[in-house]
Design brief:
With about 45 residues, this protein is mainly beta. It contains no helices and two strands. It has a two-stranded antiparallel ribbon with strand order 1-2.
């Protein structure tokens, strides 16, 4: 995947939340701000 440049929209992606449910970035488009936190070492 290519690097995302500053001030450009993030590519759409899906991740599992703490409850194991799949969340997709596009689900939030136009609704609210999204903050991503990546914690190294957590499984």
């Amino acid at each position: 995947m290519p690097r995302v440049e500053i001030q450009t929209p993030a590519p759409d992606f899906s991740l599992k939340d703490f409850n194991g449910q799949t969340i997709t970035l596009s689900d939030f488009k136009g609704k609210q701000n999204v903050v991503l936190v990546f914690n190294r070492g957590f499984t």
